[in-house]
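Section 3.1 - Work completed
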Amino acid sequence: MTNLEARHHEILKILINTTGPITTEKIGEALKVSSRTVRSDLQIIQEWLDGFDIKLVKKPRMGVYLKATAEQKIMLIDKLSELGEYYSEPFDSTEREKYIISRLLQTDKNLTSQQLADELFVSRMTIYKDLENVEKWLGKHQLALIKKPNYGLEIIGEEENWRKAFADFLAEHLEKDKLKNLVREPVAIPLDRRLDPDNYKQLAGMFPEIDVRKIERILLEAEKQLNSRFVEETYTALIVHLVISIQRLRDKKDIKMPGSQIQKLKETEEFKIASFITEELEKEFNIKIPESETGYISLHILGAKIQRSLPLKEKAIEEMLKDFDDDLIKIVYDIIHVTENTIDVKLSSDKVLVTGLALHLRPVINRIKNGMNLHNPILHQIKENYTAVYGIAWIAAGIIENRMGIKVGEEEVGYLAMHLGAAIDRATSPKRALVVCSSGIGTAQMLATRLKKLLPEIIIEDVVPAGVVDSMLKSKSVDLIISTIPLDLKDLPVILISPLVTGSDVIKIRNAIGNYNNIKIRHTLQNHEGGFVSDLIPQELIFYKKRYRKKEEIIEDIGNIMVEKGYVKHEFIKTALDREKITSTYIGKGVAIPHGEDRLVIKPAVSVITLSEPIDWWGEKVDLVFYLALHFNNSKYTKSFFKEFYDMMDNPELLKMIREAKNSSEISKILLMRGEI
C-alpha cells in the first residue's frame, strides 16, 4: 500500500471534516503550499484510498471531496491513528457542544443541523439535544440561536455581545488545547512570550487570513507610547479582541457606541493610544475602522491590567498612592480592614498590598462598568487550593458591589484572592530581625534569647552594636530592626524596646509586624454576641441531604423558606438567581455560596444545605451549600461568620463531618463544637 507523509495526513483531515467540494487552492492556502502540490498529493492519497474502496470525487470548477459514508470516515480516522497521526474527533457531548459553538461563531453562513451531524458522525437527533446546551451557553452571553427549516442555524444578538461571547469562548478553550482538531497549526511563533505559542497557533489557525504577528507589532509599539506593559492575560485578551474585530469588520459587522460616550473617551490618554492602533490596523489589513471601534479599543485599554514594578521605598509608595482617587483608596482600605477582621492578621501597614490593590481595582472597575471580562487562567486552582482566601475575596467583592453599584464576577474575585493571599503569606511568614544592643556581649545574648522565647515567629539574624548597623544591612536582608537605643533609619521600621523585653515591648513588636494574635484564627464560635449558630445559622435553616436537580432550584426553594421566616425580602431570590446567571459562586472543595443583594436582607442569616447527590454548578460538582443572607459591609455577624468560614474551608475533616452528618440536628452540633475541633 502507498505510504502517506505528514502533509497527506493533513489533507485527509481536511477532506474528512469538509462537507461538499473544496478547491485545491483552499487546501493549499491552509497548508501553505501551491495548488499544484495539492493535486500531486491527491493522486498519492487516491492510491492509498483504493485499498479501502473509497473514492476522491473531483468536480470541475467546484473542487474535490471524499465519497465515503460516516462509517468509512470513522474507519479512516482509526487508520490515521494507527499510522501514528494524533487525531480524535469530538464524540462526547461536551466536545460536540464546543465544536458546534466554534463552527457557529466562525462562519458567516447559516449551518444546518444535518451539516453538523455529518461533520460529527452523529444523528440529527443527537445534534438537536446538543443544541439545547449550546443555546444555554449563548443565552449567558445575551445571544439567541435561531433554527429555521430549510434555512439553518444562526446566532442573533447585539454585535458587542457576539464579540464578547467569541472572546470568552477563546479564553476558555485556547490554553486548554481543546480546539486542536478544528484548526491547522502554522509554523510561525509569536513575537512576545506573553502570547503562549500554542495559543498563537490555535488563534492563527482559526483566523488563517489574519496575520497575528502584525497585531503583535502594533501592540508592542503602542506599549512604548503608553510607557507601560500589559500583563500576560491582558496582552492575549487585546490580541484576541483585535483579531475578532478585524474579522467582523471584514464581514461588514461593526460595533455601535453612543456619540456621548465616544466624546468622553476622547478626553483620555487611552483613546489616543487606541487611535494609533486603529490607524496601524487600517494600513496593515486594508480595512476602514469606524470611530466606535476605536472607542471600543480604548475601553479595553482602560480596563487593561498594566505591568508595573512597585517602588521599594516607603516614600515612593506614598507618592504613588496620591495619584489615586480618594474613593478608590477608601474601597481598598475597607477591603483590607474586613480581611483583617476575618483572620486577625494586620495588613493595613502592607503598602505593597495597598498599592497593588489600588493599581488592580482601577482597571477592574472600568472593565465591569463597560461590560468587559478578563479571563483568569488559574481560577480553578485558586478555588481548590486557596478556598478560604477565595471566600474572603467574595466579601471584598461585596464591598466593591455596594460602593460602585456593579456586579463582580468570579474571574475578578479570583484576582482579588491572589492579592489578598500574597499579603496574608507576607504577614504570616517569619519576619527577619536585626537586634541592636548597646550593652555588652552577655546582655546582648540574653536579649536575643528572651526575644526568641517570647516571639518565636521572628528570626533573629544577628545581635550587633549600633556602629555596624549600616554595614550589616548591606550583607543581610531583614524586615525590621529591634533596638535598645534610638536609631534613625529611613527604609526599615525600628522598634525601640527595653533590654529586659517587657510585655509592652512584645505587643509593640507584634503591632509593628502585623501579628496581633500569633497568626492563629480564634475559635470563638459559641461566644459571638447573640449566639453564632442559634442566630446566624438557626436550626430552621439547616437542611440535611436535600435532593435537587439544579442550582436554581436550591436558590428558589431555600430562598422562599428564608422569605417565609422573615430573613429576606422576596426580591432577594431574584438577585441571587441573577448573580448565578452572570457568574459562579462555587468556591472550591464541593462548596458553593449563593447570595443575593444585602439591601434585601431583613435579618442576617446563613442556610446550610447538604445534598444527597452532587449537582452541577457551572461545570463543578457541589454537595454542600452555604446560602448567605448577610450584610457584607459592616455587620459584626458577617465578620464573625467569615472568621469561622475561613478556617472551616481549610479543615477537610470538618467538611467531611458536615457531609456525613445523619440529620440537621447533628450538623448544628458539629457547628456548635466547631471551636473545639
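Second construct:
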Amino acid sequence: MVVIEPLSHHELLLVIVQLALLLFVARLLGEAFSLMGQPAVVGELFAGVLLGPSFLGVVTPAVYESLFAVSESQFHLLEIISWIGLIMLLVVTGLETDIDLIINKGRTAVVLSLGGIVVPFATGFTLGWFLPVEFIGAPDQRVVFSLFMATAMSISAIPVIAKVLIELEVIQRDIGQLILAAGMIDDTIGWVLLATVAGLARTGVVEFGSAVTTVLSVVVFLGIAFTVGRRIVAETIRWVDNAVGSDAALLSTLMVFALAAGAITQYMGLEAILGAFVVGVLVGQVKRFNYQVRRSFETMALSVFAPLFFAIAGLRMDVVALADPAVLTVGVAVFAIACFGKFGGIMGSSRLAGLSRWEGITIGGGMNARGAMEIIVATIGLGLGILTTSMYSIIVAVAIATSLMAPAIMRWSIPKIEMGDAERKRLEREEYLQESFVNNLTRVLLPTRGTVDTQYAARLIGPLFRPLQTDLDLLYIDDSDASTADGVRGWFGERLLNRGGSDSRATEQSESAERAFTELEERLGEQASPMRQLVVNAPGSVADTILENVDVGYDMVVVGERTLGTDPDGPLFSETIDRVVQETPCPTMVVSTSESVKRDPGQIDEPIRRILLPTVGTQSSRHAAEVAFTIAAEENALVEVAHVVARSGSSDQFVDSPDLTNEVDVGDRIVDRDAELGRQLGAKIVTTVTVSDKPGVELVDIADRNGADVIVMGTNTRPISQRAFFGPNVEYVINNASCPVAVLSSV
C-alpha cells in the first residue's frame, strides 16, 4: 500500500497566502470598480493581472517569484479552487435562468448563437491561414492551427457574462436570458468543435466519430437531466428538508449535486460546467430551495469563490510577453478580428431575429467576452503543441481584454433598450413572487378526520396549491382514548369507538384513516407535488399532537371547523383549534362550513364562482387576498374585494352624520391596490366600498345579496379571556354567514 505524502508545511503555507492575497486584491478592486460605476468582475479580473508577471513580476520580481512563479503541482492547487469557483458561478447562473422564457425565445437564441459561431469561425480560420509560421506550434499542420484559431474565436465566456448580468441586475430581463441562452448554445457547439479539432491534432485526420459522440452525449445528458434528473433532484431536496430541515443541509445537497453532475459531464468530455449549470436550473425549479437559501448560496459564491476564479484567470496574462513588436502586431490583429467576427455575426443575426440595434449591440458585447473558456481552449492548444508560447499569450490577452470590454459595452447599451409591457409585467410578477405569501408556502399541514368541514377545507385549498409545488401533508390523528373534555367533538366529529380488541381497533383505525385520506385527496384533486399521509396515535391532547407536528417546519396549518356558538365570551372554536390558532408558530387557516353544506355534503364539490374578500389593507388582508386570487384564477371565479368604512352610530336624530369622505377615499385606495394584485395574478375582480354602523353585518349582507360561494378573510389573532380572538367583525361573519368562511390568521 502506497502512502500519499501530505502537503509540506511550505506548500500549504504558500497556497493559503496566495488565496488570501488573491481574494483581498480581487475584492478590493472589485469594490473600487463598483464605486466607479463598473461591475466588480472587471476589478476581479484586473486583480490577477496586477499580481501576475505583467505588474508584480516587473515591479518586485522577487516577491512575484516567491508567490506565483511556482511549480506546476503548486499552481494546480490554485486551479482546483478556481474550478470550484467556476462550478459555483455556473450553479448561480442556472438558479437565475428562466427555462420557460428561454424555451419561448428558443428560435431567437438559436439564430443569435449561429451568428455568433459561423462568422467568428470563418474569420478565425482566415486569420489562422495567413498568420506567420513562427506562431504555429506545428508548421506542417496549418489547417489544424487554422481550425483551432477558428474555434478559439467562436467561444464565449458564460461565467463572465453571467457575473456581469448579475451585477447589472439584468439577468432576469429578456435580454439577459437571451444572452445566456445563445451563449450556452454557442459553448455547446464550441465543445463539439474543440473535440473535433483536438482529435485532428492528435491523429492528423478529422475524427468525425468523436464529434458525433460529443453531440449525442450532450443530447443524452440533457434528456436524462430534465426527465429523470429533475425528479431525483426535487425528491432529494424535499427529503433533506423534511429529514434535516436546515439551510446548511440544502446548500450541501446543492453542492453535492453540482459536483456529481460536473464529474459526469467531465467524464463524458463535455466540461464540468455544463453539469453544474444544469443542476442550478433543476434546483431553481424546486420550491423547497426558497429565495432565502438561494441568496445564501449566491452570497458565498459571488463574494468568495467567483472573485478567486476571476483573479486566478487574470493571473495567467503576461503583458511583458506582448511587448515584442511582432507579437504585439499579431495580438492587435487577433483582438480586432475576434471582436469584428463576434460583433459582426451577432449584429447580422440580431436583425434576422427581429431585435433592435441596441439589443444587437448588447448581445454582441456580452458574447464577445471570452474569459476563462478561451483560456481553457488556449491551454489545450498549448498542451497539444498547436500553439506556440507567444500565440498562447496572445489568446489569453484577448480573452482578458474582451472580458474587460463586455461590462462597459453592456452598461452603456442596456439602458437604451426599451422594456416592453410584457417584459415589465413578467418582471413585476417575478418580483411579487419572491415576496409572495402563497408562493413561498413550501410545506402545509392539513389535520383530518374526514369531517365535512375538513373536506371543504381540502376542496378550497385544492385549487390554491394545484399550480404550485407546495408539499401538502395529510395528518390523521387516532384519539380513541382521548377525553371529550379536550374539545375533540367540535373538530373531529364523531369519536372512534374502542370495540374491545387491539386488532379490531387497529383495523378500524386503518380503515378510518384510509377513508379520510381518500375523501380528502378526491377534494384536493391533482397536485403538482406528491401528498404525504401521516397517521399518529395520540390518546392524549390532540392539540399537543398537532403542535408537535407543526414544529418540524410547516409554513401553514389548515383546519376545518364549525363554530361552537354565538356566545361572545365563549370560544369561537373548540379548545383544540383555539390552542392551535394561538400557539402555532406559523399562519393558520380555519375553514368553517355552513349548515347547508352540513346537511348536503354534495355541495362541497360544487364549483366556486364568486368569492367575497373583505379587506382593511393590513398584511393579513394582503395574505388572504393572495389566497383568494390564486383560488379564483384556478377556478375562473370572480372576486369581490370589499371594504366597509365603520360609521359611529348615534341615536340622536339632530346630530349631523360625520364626514367620512377621507375614510372612503382610503377605502378606495385599499381595494384598488388589492384589485391590481388580483389582476396581476389572473383573477377577475370587482370592488365595493360601503359605509355601515356594523361592518360585520354589512359584509354578511353583501355575501348574501351577491351570492358569494365562500368568504376569505385575513386577521391577526389576539388572546382575550384565555381564547383566540379574531376581532368582532370577523367573528360575526364566521357565526352568521350563510356560506363557508375561510379565516387566515397571520402570526
